[in-house]
């Protein structure tokens, strides 16, 4: 396991949950980016500051960090987060943060952005803005606090199963970190994690490779609003 995979595994559960709630908050709104002002608008009613991360190119199936995209002449004001990630990568020998470009077969934009949003000290989400031939990834700041609220236990199980289906991570590290971040009391044994929060319990069984073999929950029924 390399350093990037460990960091992604630690951050991805909470970051993934944020992305789900961010998507629900945005709904069907279209996006419009103003690079010079460093903002993104969603629909006619929402506008937030952004920090660029990088781009995916379909032609050569590659990632390019925004700090390395010299031809675009981006303002340093919207490169602060990706520059901080590069510095962090230099300190901890994380090539995914320091190499200016690499194949998406190594790491794709979603995995980079999930790690980036999790590592950022300020509450943020990320957005993928597609264009002809690729997509721009950036962090979005100052979104409502509801996006960062803890999710219920049933949703937590869904996040865990979605993450292991879509992202290459260490299952045990991801589950332990995510459930701790969601306010569960986490009990560890050789091949099991029991997570308890109030009247909810999530039980996860792992195989000899520390990969999830079974996940179940004893959950309090959710009361419907009247």
Task: Give the termini distance in whole angstroms.
Answer: 49 Å
DSSP summary, beta strand count:
11
Give the helix/strand class.
alpha+beta
**How many domain units?**
2
The quaternary state of the protein chains shown equals: single chain
Q: What fraction of residues sit in β-strands?
A: 25-35%
Range of helix content: 25-40%
Q: What's the overall average pLDDT, rounded?
A: 94
Number of continuous helical runs: 6
Low-confidence blocks of residues: none
- Rg computed from alpha carbons, rounded to a whole number of angstroms: 18 Å
Largest sheet: 7 strands, antiparallel
Topology pattern, helix = H, strand = E: HEEEEHHEHEEHHEEEE
Write down the overall geometry.
globular
InterPro entries: DUF6882
In short:
With 226 residues, this protein is α+β, with helices and mostly antiparallel strands. It has helices at residues 3-26, 80-92, 95-98, 109-119, 153-166, 171-181, and strands spanning 31-34, 39-42, 46-57, 62-65, 101-103, 124-131, 134-141, 185-188, 192-197, 200-206, 212-218. Strands 1, 2, 3, 4, 5, 6 and 7 form a 7-stranded antiparallel sheet that branches. A 4-stranded antiparallel sheet has the order 8-9-10-11, covered by helices on one side.
Task: Summarize the structure in words.
- The protein is an alpha+beta fold and 226 residues long.
- It has 2 domains: 3-147, no CATH class; 150-218.
- The chain contains 6 helices and 11 strands.
- The chain has helices at residues 3-26, 80-92, 95-98, 109-119, 153-166, 171-181, and strands at residues 31-34, 39-42, 46-57, 62-65, 101-103, 124-131, 134-141, 185-188, 192-197, 200-206, 212-218.
- The strands form 2 sheets. Strands 1, 2, 3, 4, 5, 6 and 7 form a 7-stranded antiparallel sheet that branches. A 4-stranded antiparallel sheet has the order 8-9-10-11, covered by helices on one side.
- The protein is globular and about 55 Å long.
- The model has no long low-confidence stretch (mean pLDDT 94).
């Amino acid at each position: 396991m390399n350093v990037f995979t460990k960091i992604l595994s630690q951050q991805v559960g909470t970051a993934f949950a944020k992305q789900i709630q961010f998507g629900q908050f945005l709904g069907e709104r279209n996006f419009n980016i103003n690079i010079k002002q460093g903002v993104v608008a969603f629909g006619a009613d929402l506008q937030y500051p952004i920090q660029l991360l990088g781009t995916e190119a379909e032609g050569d199936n590659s990632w390019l960090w925004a700090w390395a995209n010299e031809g675009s002449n981006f303002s340093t004001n919207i490169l602060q987060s990706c520059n901080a990630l590069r510095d962090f990568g230099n300190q901890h020998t994380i090539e995914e943060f320091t190499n200016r470009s690499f194949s998406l077969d190594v790491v794709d934009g979603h995995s980079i952005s999930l790690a980036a949003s999790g590592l950022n000290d300020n509450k943020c989400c990320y957005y993928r803005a597609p264009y002809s031939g690729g997509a721009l990834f950036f962090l979005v700041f100052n979104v409502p606090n509801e996006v960062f609220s803890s999710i219920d236990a049933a949703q937590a199980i869904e996040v865990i199963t979605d993450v292991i289906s879509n992202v290459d991570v260490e299952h045990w590290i991801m589950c332990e970190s995510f459930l701790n971040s969601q306010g569960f009391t986490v009990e560890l044994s050789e091949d099991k994690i029991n997570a308890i929060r109030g009247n909810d319990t999530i039980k996860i069984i792992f195989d000899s490779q520390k990969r999830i073999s079974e996940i179940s929950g004893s959950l309090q029924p959710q009361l419907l609003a009247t």
